[in-house]
Task: structure prediction
Amino acid sequence: MAQAIHRLKYRGERSLARRLAAPMVEAGRGLLGDADAVVHVPLHPARRRERGFDQALLLASAVARSANLPLLRRALVRARPSGHQVGRGREERGAAVADAFRAAGDVRGLSLVLVDDVVTTGATADAAARALERAGARKVGVLAVARAL
Result:
């Protein structure tokens, strides 16, 4: 799984997103069944330009299509860069992503599934979910390809 995620993110093998989304949909069937829409954890625009794509958006698109749910592509934005999280501890990660996200779309009353590639400490997912909840989302669940321990 780690190799597949690395190939997607750093080698640009975008077709892997569809294959990685299949087990996400299977594992998250209950979460997706109660959801109104899918949202992704966005990259900062500068990082997206550097990489050429947003891996979480690719995954979220495949998950939404498979689960027959709308994808809210612009519901969440990364308002400021947080830098690479690799090698940071829990507190450093939390500080790096604090207030890094803001809701940009109308999510009031919606039950959302937030999609990302990897959850390590949960700091990024927590910061993104809080931004959606502040904007009125009723519920935010998180679905990722992998959990790094």
